[in-house]
Amino acid sequence: MSNDRNMSNGVNISNDYDIAIIGAGPAGMSAALVAAESGATVVILDDKLRPGGQIYRNVTQSPLQNPEVLGVDYVKGQALVARFEQSSIDKFFGASVWHVGDNGEILFSHASETKRLTAREIIISCGAMERPFPIKGWHLPGVMSAGSAQVMLKNDGLVKDNAVFVGTGPLLYLIVAQYLRLGVKVKAVVDTTPVSAYKRALPLIFSVLPHLKMLLKGVGLLNEIRKSGTPVYRFASKVAIEGEGEATAVSFYANGQMHCMAAEHVFLHQGVIPNLNMTRSIGLKHYWCEQQLCWKPELDQWCESSVPSIAVAGDCGGIVGADAAEDMGRLAAIQRIYRLGLISQQERNERAKFSQRRLSSFNTFRRFIDRMYQPIKQHRVPVDDQVVVCRCEEQTVAQLKSGFVEGGSGPEELKGLTRCGMGPCQGRQCGHTVSELLADWRDERIEKVGYYRMRSPMRLLNLAELSLFTQVESKGTSGQESQHEN
């Protein structure tokens, strides 16, 4: 009988785990399997109801009759998810982690209660988020990220007919192709990849020839879109969403002229960036990555952070993709079990060779992708005073400028003066934009400007939830949960 003790099934688990993993995407599942197979006691927590992360979301329980239409890169995740689901690893689904301490303490919300456990080693693999696309009208009803469109598709099989897709990058083309395979009409694709991007990426073309299959896959997506007859506007710039109260049109410059296209549904995408709120809240060291134009946690070759007991694997440590995320998860787990004394240094090094080789190769291809699809500055750093930067608190560029003039020269000072970054998303949607805006206004490097100072709790909590506190007892005791009324 499996000792998979999912709390939602009402079965107790014990704490004092060897390794706790936050996030059950490709990196988290791979790390958990490696660690468990090596004899470590492992627990994994994820805020979704099933494993898979975004890339393998619902891959074993798709609402679509034929999930293969989503692509081979999606359905190949079935094997990994099945292995993970069949394992005896302790699993919490629907668990929202809101505090991680460098002492191994983890607090999370689950089943309308606050729960606590501890672990000797922690692996954070909470994935990526879509890069903000702060243009005029991006906050209007009817405008969503392309990733959100994919979530609706994978979760519930829901689509939006006649939508306009705007932006750049392989994920944008993939989602459009998925729509078309399902027979959903796409009104247009507005591609913001500039001509200069092709010139930047060209010198790296020979270094990525070992990944010719991946290159051809991307070309195949573009051909699929072209053959469908869907209008594609290339090298677009000056994108804006028009409408009062809701989106009614999208305007942009392409082919030497301005266009204005009626649209009730607009999906935006210009790449993904690491989901930083957890790594920031813990206080891990971060740096600004010029290659990917985003903040990243500082990691060594074993995915170990500035706090030795905490590793970061997958896209939350830097955008790498699903296959490379699995390798990062394996490397993080191998180092954790070495630190726990379960394997020798020699065995660690031998077991790591394959993943280290693959990860190095993937990173070469990643450099090409990052150059090719780097979002243009006008779509990252808004200059129009009326553009909303903080959607939670509805703070515009003009309001932030006023805060800057009043003395808000850093992200924290600006937050205090304008409330930008204080909303429910805790700065996820505005953090990078604020850093880049302040760097421009101060005429300084972004590293000097910094980012929001994050703290626990990482999400909004209510008193009712906090009053129901479940302390998960460590192994060697009664093994029972104790309820503490606060």
Describe the structure.
- The chain has 486 residues and is of the alpha/beta class.
- It folds into three domains: 7-129 and 274-343, FAD/NAD(P)-binding domain; 132-270, FAD/NAD(P)-binding domain (3-Layer(bba) Sandwich), CATH 3.50.50.60; 381-449, Arc Repressor Mutant, subunit A, CATH 1.10.10.1100.
- α1 (26-37) packs parallel to α9 and α5 (170-181) crosses α7.
- Strands 1, 2, 3, 4, 5, 6, 19, 22 and 23 form a nine-stranded mixed sheet that branches. The chain has a five-stranded parallel sheet with strand order 8-15-9-10-11.
- It has 15 helices and 23 strands.
- It is globular, with a radius of gyration of 23 Å.
- The longest helix has 28 residues, at 345-372.
- Helices cover 33% and strands 22% of the residues.
- Residues 1-15 and 474-486 have low confidence and may be disordered.
- A hairpin with a 2-residue loop joins β5 and β6 (113-124).
- The protein has helices at residues 26-37, 72-75, 77-86, 146-156, 170-181, 195-201, 212-227, 277-282, 322-339, 345-372, 397-405, 411-418, 431-442, 446-449, 463-467, and strands at residues 17-22, 42-46, 90-93, 96-100, 105-110, 113-124, 128-130, 143-145, 163-167, 186-191, 232-233, 237-242, 249-254, 257-262, 266-269, 272-274, 286-289, 294-297, 310-312, 388-390, 395-396, 468-472, 481-485.
